[in-house]
């Protein structure tokens, strides 16, 4: 197959020569995207104000779970008359199935590229993928990270209710239920929340996997305010993922750029970046982040996504030296190779040399340390919210739930702090496990400390 392909042809040219497999995969991807395109539009527009509502397939409107129980024990206004717990569970299963189908289709895209458009039949990347597929600890991390990412991306549809109805503006929305006199009553969500509070006593507690007295299903129970905790956690996952991805992405770009510059030019450029990076690393990071969050809290950028963007930029600005130190060693190592000297002698532009011959070498190391750092950002955001800083209330955030429930840990309402605490630990551990899997896939000898793996680890450690 690959022998017939022009080794000098670009990917676009190869696709033009054989468009069938690419168009088939693209058609499937467009169909999958069209099913949930409205959710993407809602999220993007929601960053700057009220999100634009467009119909999507996996919504609570299509599979509602917010009805009420009749006197005969049946349910009205739920999907097919199912109990809210079953209707909600069905929607959750379909959402995760849809996300898994996307994962399968992306893998299918890689296979299509490998079989039809890649120059070589085999590359070292194939062995990396095979090693990662056999790495059980890395697979555990990948599964948990997948579940977390899906929870964040589909938060509005996954929750038994919505943030707007149950958390942000509960007194502007209504629910129906049969009262003690057997009459169908229409009350505000805020009033219902007052009767569904979890405040540490058996009489005032709605625990995990329970209904409240208004017939509302709460998979994680309720908060002391009576608000649904699963909805709170799902929305908080979206905030945490947004901050983590933006901060790590920006930090990674800065770190990679400085690593390539310092490795290529060395001398004064390296010294200048070392001074700046060490100066930032010498500061007590938590206090520095707290100071910047307060100083920038009154600016216009702090209003974007309830302060999530400014917090992401703060973490990026204070975190890039740690990533840069991690990839500086490998960048220095590759800059001493003969092909770099050959590229210089042929008069190749520095930017081309760094992009084509140096950047691919450090990308794997950057990916490993970025995946491990992402968990640290998530736990740092939770810590700031626990201290009452960071994300502007009432926007949900996991650390705030831990703070709210800390006085109820030994009571009937133990779930308020326990569930978010366990989820924080689980997600952070999963990102570290995934990072371990990627590291071992890239360098199978990294764990044994032998051969080339130990040399790469020493180079990396020397720059850390």
TrEMBL record:
GO terms for cellular component: plasma membrane. Belongs to the binding-protein-dependent transport system permease family. The chain crosses the membrane at residues 23-48, 85-107, 140-159, 239-261, 268-292, 304-323, 362-392, 412-434. Keywords: Cell membrane, Membrane, Transmembrane, Transmembrane helix, Transport. This is ABC transporter permease. It is found in: Cell membrane. Residues 454-464 have a biased composition (Low complexity). It is a multi-pass membrane protein. InterPro entries: BP-dependent_transpt_permease, MetI-like, MetI-like_sf, OppC_N. PANTHER family: D,D-DIPEPTIDE TRANSPORT SYSTEM PERMEASE PROTEIN DDPC-RELATED, OLIGOPEPTIDE TRANSPORT SYSTEM PERMEASE PROTEIN APPC. Its main location: membrane. Residues 237-435 form the ABC transmembrane type-1 domain. It holds the Pfam family BPD_transp_1. Residues 442-464 are annotated as: Disordered. PROSITE patterns: ABC_TM1. It comes from the Archaea. One of its GO terms (biological process) is transmembrane transport.
């Amino acid at each position: 197959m690959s022998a017939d392909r022009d080794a000098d042809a670009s990917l676009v040219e190869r696709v033009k020569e054989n468009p069938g497999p690419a168009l088939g995969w693209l058609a499937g991807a467009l169909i999958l995207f069209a099913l949930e395109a409205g959710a993407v539009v809602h999220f993007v527009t929601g960053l700057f104000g009220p999100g634009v509502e467009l119909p999507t397939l996996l919504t609570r409107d299509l599979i509602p779970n917010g009805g009420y129980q009749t006197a005969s024990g049946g349910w009205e206004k739920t999907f097919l008359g199912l109990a809210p717990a079953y209707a909600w569970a069905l929607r959750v299963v379909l959402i995760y199935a849809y996300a898994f189908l996307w994962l399968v289709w992306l893998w299918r895209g890689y296979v299509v590229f490998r079989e039809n458009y890649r120059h070589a039949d085999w590359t070292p990347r194939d062995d990396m993928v095979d090693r990662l597929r056999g790495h059980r600890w890395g697979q555990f991390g990948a599964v948990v990270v997948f579940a977390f990412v899906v929870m964040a991306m589909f938060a509005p549809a996954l929750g038994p209710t919505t943030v707007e109805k149950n958390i942000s503006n509960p007194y502007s929305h209504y629910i129906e239920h049969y009262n003690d006199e057997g009459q169908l009553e229409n009350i505000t969500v805020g009033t219902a929340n007052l009767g569904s509070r979890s405040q540490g006593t058996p009489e005032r507690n709605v625990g995990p996997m329970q209904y409240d007295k208004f017939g509302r299903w709460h998979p994680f129970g309720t908060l002391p305010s009576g608000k649904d905790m699963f909805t709170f956690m799902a929305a908080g996952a979206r905030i945490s993922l947004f901050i983590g991805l933006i901060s790590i992405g920006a930090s990674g770009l800065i770190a990679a750029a400085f690593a390539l510059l310092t490795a290529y030019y060395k001398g004064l450029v390296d010294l200048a970046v070392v001074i700046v990076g060490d100066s930032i690393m010498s500061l007590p990071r938590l206090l520095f982040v707290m100071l910047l969050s307060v100083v920038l809290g009154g600016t216009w950028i702090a209003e974007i996504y309830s302060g999530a963007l400014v917090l992401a930029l703060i973490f990026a600005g204070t975190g890039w030296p740690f990533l840069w130190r991690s990839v500086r060693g490998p960048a220095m190592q590759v800059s001493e190779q003969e092909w770099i000297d050959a590229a210089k002698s042929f008069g190749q532009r520095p930017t081309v040399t760094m992009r084509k011959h140096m950047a691919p070498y450090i990308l794997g190391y950057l990916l490993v340390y970025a995946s491990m750092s992402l968990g640290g950002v998530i736990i740092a955001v939770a810590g700031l919210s626990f201290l009452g800083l960071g994300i502007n209330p009432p926007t949900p955030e996991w650390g705030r739930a831990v703070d709210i429930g800390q006085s109820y840990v030994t009571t009937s309402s133990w779930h308020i702090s326990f569930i978010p605490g366990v989820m924080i630990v689980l997600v952070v551990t999963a990102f570290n496990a995934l990072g371990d899997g990627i590291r071992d896939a890239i360098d199978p000898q990294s764990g044994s400390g032998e051969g080339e793996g130990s040399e790469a680890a020493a180079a990396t450690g020397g720059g850390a």
